[in-house]
Every structure is written in C-alpha cells, then in structure tokens.
Design goal:
Helix content: under 10%
Strand content: over 45%
CATH topology of one domain: lipopolysaccharide transport protein A fold
Largest sheet: 27 strands, mixed, barrel
Shape: elongated
Distance between the termini: 93 Å
Number of strands: 47
Structural class: mainly beta
Number of helices: 4
CATH class of one domain: Mainly Beta
Radius of gyration: 36 Å
C-alpha cells in the first residue's frame, strides 16, 4: 500500500529495545516498511538529534538513511556534519561520508573522507584534526587512518603529520591523545634537549593510573654523551584527610664523562617522601578524641647534588641549596594542652660525609595553653621540651627545657595604657653519650643543670585616630624592661660558663647555648595607615639595649616598612643598623609594579655581619619584568646578580605567542648551579639554555631545549 500524507506536521514514533525513536517532518511518504520524510525532516533517538534534507526509515531493518546537509547532535557535546549517513539501530552501526565532528567542550574538530563504526567506536579514513579555526587552521595533524572511542574519549592516529600552516614539521607513525581530562594510563608529553657536553636528551614520562586513589609516573631519560637514568613518583590519597607522594631516582654516568668532569660519584641516587594527614588519630586508630591531630612528613636523601640536577633537562627548575632539611612533625591539640614530636635531619650536599652533622631525632614538646585568673588579670602558660641531638660520629646529647611565664596585667589612665609584669622561670638539663670527636680534647661527659628567673615589665598603648577622608591612623608604642634575675649553674654549664662565647669553635661548646645574663630594654613603635578599612602603610621600628658587667651594648636598630603606594605600585623595606660597627648590617628593598599590561620588580638584598668573628658581606640584585603587548604576545625577562662575587647567577629573556589553539614560546636562560666534585673547593656549572615550547591546544605539546655547558 502506498500512502502520502501532506500535513502541516506529520510525526510517527515506535519503541526499540525500550528506547523511543521519533520521526518528524512536514511531508511523509509511507510505502510498506519504508517511510520517506521530506521537507525539514528530523529524527531523535536516545541522546541524538539528526536533521537532513531527506531521511528514509526502514522499520523492518531498523535502518535510517539521511542525505544532504546532515547535522547530528550527540550527548549535547558533539556536532557531526556529513552529506550521507546510514544508521542501523538494531546493530548499532553507522556510516558517514564525509565526516566532520566538532567537540564543543574542547574546541577540537576532526574531518575525514569517511567514517564507519559500531556503538561508540569509530574507524576513520584519511583526514585531519585540529583545535584551531577549521576554515584556516594555524596547525593541524593529518593522518591516513584513525580510531576514535567516544566512550573512553581516546583517539589513535596513524601516520600522523603535524603541519603548521601549510608547512609539514613533524611525523609520527602513531600518535594518541585523550579528548577529556580523565586520568588514564599512557604516555605523557616527552621532553627533548641538546647539550654541547651531554649530547642529545630525551625523557619519556609514562603514566599509570590503576586506581582512582593512587597513580605512578615513571620518567626514563637518556643523555647520549653522559648516561641514562630513571626517576619515578608515586602519588596516593590513603584517607579522606591525607595525601602523599614518594619519589625515587637513579642515574648512571658514563665513565668518560665522570673522569672529564672530575665528578665525585659515578651513580647519583636518592629518594623523597611527602605526606600530610589532618586526622591521623581519628582515622587510623578510631580514637574518640575531641582535639585535633596532624602528621606532616617532608623528607629526602641523596648521595650528591646531581641527583637534583638530573631530574629534568632544565636544571633551572630545581631549587638547590647546600643544605637539605627533612622533617617529620606530628601533634595532638586539645582545648588546654598541646603535644608535639618533631624530627629534623640535615644533609649538606657540598660534603661527602655528614656523619658529624648534629640531627634532631626527635624533639618532644608539651605546651599548656594560656590560662587566665582573677578576671583576666593573671595569665599563665608553660612549655616543656626534650630533645635528642644525634649524629653517627661524635658526642651526642639529650637536652630538656622548661619555661613557665607568669603574667600580671592591667590598664591605666582610663585604659589608655596597658601595663604588665612577667616572672619568667626557665630550667635546662643536658646529658651526653656516644663517642667524642677526635679533635675534642675534653673527656667530660658530665650532666649539666641550669636555671634562671627573669622579670619583665611591659608598658604599651594602642591609639586610633580617624580622619574625614576614610583614613585611619593606628599607633602602637610599647616599651619593656627585663631584669636579669637569679642564675644557677651546675655540671657542664658551670664548667664552661664564660668559656663558650659566640664564635667559639671548641668542640666542647657545641651544645652550650647559654647567653651571658644581662638586663635589657626593648623599645618599639608600630604605625598603621588604613583607608576604607584596608591598610596601605605598615611601619614597625624596634631598638633593644643590653646592660651587663661589661657595660652597655646596643642591639641593632630594626625597621620594616610595607607601603602600597598605588593600586599598581608597592614598596617594601627592611633595615637593620649596627651601632657598634656604625654600619647598616642588613637591608632589603623591593619595588614592584603590577599593571594590566606591564609587571616589573627590582629587589636588592644586602648584609654586612660578623659570624664566628669573620665578616660576612653579601649584595644580591634581582629584577624581573613582563610586557603583555597584546592578547597574543607576552615578553618577559629576569636577572639575578651577585654583586659581591661579581657573578651573574641567573638571567633569562623570552616571549610567548598564544592563541586559543596554539602556544609558541622562545626563551634564553643562563643559570649557575652547584655540583659535587673530587676537588677541595666547591664547584658549580654555568648553563646556557635555549628553550622552545610548542603547545597544540587542547591536545598537548612539548618543550625542546638546547644547552651549552661551561665549567
């Protein structure tokens, strides 16, 4: 039977496997199982809406054929365009020729000669993909064939050729990428480099994500003229209140490179652990405690500094100091009490052996929170610590400290003045064990006991004056005088009392931390200028004086200034003046400008101090600037200069070109870093880099660097 319906609107619907298929059109020609829909036909099925110039539906074969100006919208995310499409609803197969797909979330499009698939898996033939404007893409990747899994959001390209404009620049026999941000196992973006001394550099990160609470990243690398290595990170979240990571690394030098550079080690290796937990007692031990607990771990160890240098091709990314500090801190805090344990381990990277370095393993701390009596006029709190000072070689010590301040406070002159008196009782005990150093002539392992009682009177005020232009001035002057009270020395502290002064290198004085008793006067004045409740000028000045049997002594005059001159311009200054030497002992000045198109800053750090009877002078300049020329171009530069050593520590200049779909960066960097050699003096390497960064948004990208190394 042949039937023609000429209506303003004709529609039909049926169910297949519980899903509703609906056909709409202004003209429907039905002939048996065939339905021919013309004049603005539309079909909907599951999360798909398809429109075309002409749609034919065969209900016996559950086959939909669409021709001309086809537009398919899927999941509210994908937009497909074609001239011919065939869908078998029963077998869930489809065929399109040609095939154009646009991902509205990522902005990536894919265009091919034809596509056929089953369910969410699609095979593509001869096409290209890009994240740029499809009419004139800045870059695109051409391929001979591809596989696209829409369910797993993954694309495999074969015989992939990257073209920038019309210029072919790179070829890969295979290239795969994700179309979403879901964690998945696979290869990450590699990094490349070349060095005049180390040869070609290649690092290929491999990412494993077996579970949603932990993953692993391995980074094998090769430096053709230097050696090979492997670094890896394990990241995990073991409870809702914790997270951590473990890093391991190993690098094997070529023997010829080690001999040429006179390196201290043929292998470089190390490890690190970072962990933070904000509720360990509750989640690990199910303890019904009302207080808070915490655990913090940040530890690392390495056999030399090149373990850090070799983590990346770009050593400027490594923050390297001569000293590495590892910490394990844990605490429990209730309303009235605090208990803590702190382990601290030091490793000096410019030394081959740290056996004589004193470690804190551990320090136990108890604190009684401030309690008030007599209507808040009497205050009291307490601190007690027990510390084990350990080292593999040399004399070790266990030291205990107790501090109990008792404060009586009140106000005068209708609360214009605040007056307080504090009696501060301190006790100290020390004991020794282990073997003494070979240069320690003392054979005394006697215990030491020390006690002191000091008295402090403090007078202060807080003065506030508002002005009519929404400005407020707050002034906080304060003065305190401490009377050195009774002292008690016994054992070790009595033996070396007066013999272990500042700068004394006698091994017996390693654990002597007492200062000579003296009265002291502290003066201070804090000023705050606020506008509309926000401070824009903060100035703090202080001066201390000491009075003892040797006479009067001035402490350093210190001043700190923070000034927000305008919304864009700020200034910071910190100055310390030494009266005895009549010099500025320390000064830091920083000026910054943060505008919409320009950001810049200049900083100078200066010290002139006496440490262990030796003058120590430093003068260090840093400057940085960035200019956003327009929405596409950004220029930047940085300089760090050691004036004392007449040495450029770091310098860089570069630009970044960025668009919606493409980033290209070029940067020249010069950086000086330390290395450990067999020479007696400390050594460093001056590296010069040329960085080239290419990012194909949102697919990814890579960075290439060329390094020229000079000793």
């Amino acid at each position: 039977m042949h039937k023609t319906l000429g209506l303003c609107l004709a529609a039909s619907a049926f169910l297949y496997a519980g899903e509703r298929v609906e056909l709409f059109g202004t003209f429907v020609d039905m002939n048996g199982s065939l339905s021919h829909i013309g004049e603005d036909p539309l079909i909907t099925y599951k999360d798909q809406i398809l429109s075309a110039d002409e749609i034919v539906y065969d209900s016996n074969r559950t086959l939909v054929e669409a021709k001309g100006s086809i537009n398919l919208f899927k999941e509210g995310k994908y937009h497909l365009i074609s001239d011919y499409a065939a869908y078998n609803i029963q077998e869930d197969t489809h065929y399109l020729k040609p095939y154009y797909m646009f991902d509205q979330e990522t902005g990536v499009w894919m265009s091919t000669a034809e596509a056929q698939g089953c369910d969410n898996k699609i095979d593509l033939v001869s096409g290209s993909v890009s994240g740029c404007n499809s009419s004139d893409p800045l870059w695109k990747i051409r391929f001979s064939s591809a596989k696209y899994d829409m369910q797993s959001s993954w694309v495999d390209l074969y015989n992939a050729r990257l073209e920038v404009g019309a210029l072919p620049v790179f070829y890969l026999p295979y290239f795969g990428y994700a179309t979403d941000r879901k964690r998945r196992t696979g290869l990450l973006v590699p990094s490349f480099g070349f060095s005049g001394s180390e040869g070609f550099y290649y690092q290929q990160p491999i990412y494993f994500a077996p579970r949603n609470w932990w993953d692993v990243e391995l980074r094998p690398q090769i430096r053709t003229s230097r050696g090979e290595g492997l670094y890896g990170d394990i990241r995990f979240i073991d409870t809702p209140s914790s997270q951590g990571s473990i890093r391991l690394g190993y690098f094997q030098e070529h023997s010829s490179y080690k001999e040429e550079k006179n390196l201290a080690h043929l292998q470089h290796y190390g490890y690190g652990l970072k962990y933070r937990h904000t509720e360990p007692l509750r989640e690990w031990f199910d303890l019904p405690l009302e207080g808070a607990s915490g655990l913090y771990v940040n530890g690392s160890w390495m056999n030399d500094v090149d373990y850090l240098n070799l983590q990346h091709s770009d050593e400027t990314r490594n923050v390297i100091a001569n000293q590495v500090i590892s910490r394990i801190n844990t605490y429990y805090s209730s309303e009235d009490n605090y208990l803590g344990s702190y382990l601290k381990h030091y490793q000096y990277l410019d030394q081959n052996n740290n056996a004589q370095t004193i470690q804190t393993l551990p320090s136990l701390h108890y604190h009684r929170y401030l309690e008030s009596f007599l209507n808040n006029h009497l205050l009291m709190n307490a601190d007690a610590t027990a510390t084990n000072f350990y080292r593999a070689e040399g004399k070790k010590a266990v030291e205990g400290n107790l501090n109990i301040p008792l404060t009586l406070q009140g106000s005068l002159l209708n609360e214009y003045l605040d007056l307080s008196y504090t009696a501060n009782a301190t006790g100290k005990m020390i004991g020794f064990y282990g073997n003494k150093r070979s240069d320690d002539v003392s054979s005394l392992y006697e215990q030491g006991i020390y006690a002191q009682l000091d008295h402090t009177v403090n007078l202060g005020s807080t003065l506030v004056r508002p002005y009519t232009n929404n400005m407020t001035h707050v002034m906080n002057p304060h003065v305190s005088y401490t009377f050195a009270g009774k002292r008690y020395y016994n054992g070790y502290y009595d033996t070396y009392n007066g013999a272990c002064g500042v700068g004394n290198t006698n091994p017996a004085c390693e654990y002597y931390t007492l200062n000579e008793p003296s009265d002291s006067l502290a003066l201070g004045l804090n000023n705050y200028l606020l506008k509309e409740g926000k401070s824009f000028v903060v100035d703090r000045i202080s001066q201390n004086f000491r009075y003892n049997d040797q006479g009067n002594a001035y402490g350093e005059l210190q001043n700190e200034l923070e000034w927000e001159i305008t919304k864009e311009i700020s200034f910071y200054n910190q100055t310390a003046y030494n009266h005895d030497r009549n010099v500025i002992a320390k000064e830091q000045n920083t000026v910054r400008y943060n505008g919409e198109t320009v950001t810049a800053g200049v900083s100078h750090y200066y010290t002139d101090q006496i440490r262990n009877t030796i003058p120590v002078y430093a003068s260090y300049w840093t400057a940085d600037a960035a200019y956003q020329y327009n929405r596409n171009y950004r220029f930047s530069g940085l300089v760090a200069y050691d004036y004392r050593a007449d040495l450029m520590k770091r310098g860089e200049a570069g630009f970044l070109y960025t668009t919606r779909c493409f980033d290209f960066g070029l940067k020249l960097v010069q950086n000086r870093r330390p290395i450990l050699t067999n020479a007696i003096v400390n050594n460093s390497v001056n590296d010069t880099y040329v960085f080239i960064t290419v990012i194909l948004k949102p697919i990814g990208g890579s960075a290439f660097n060329y390094k020229l190394t000079n000793n």
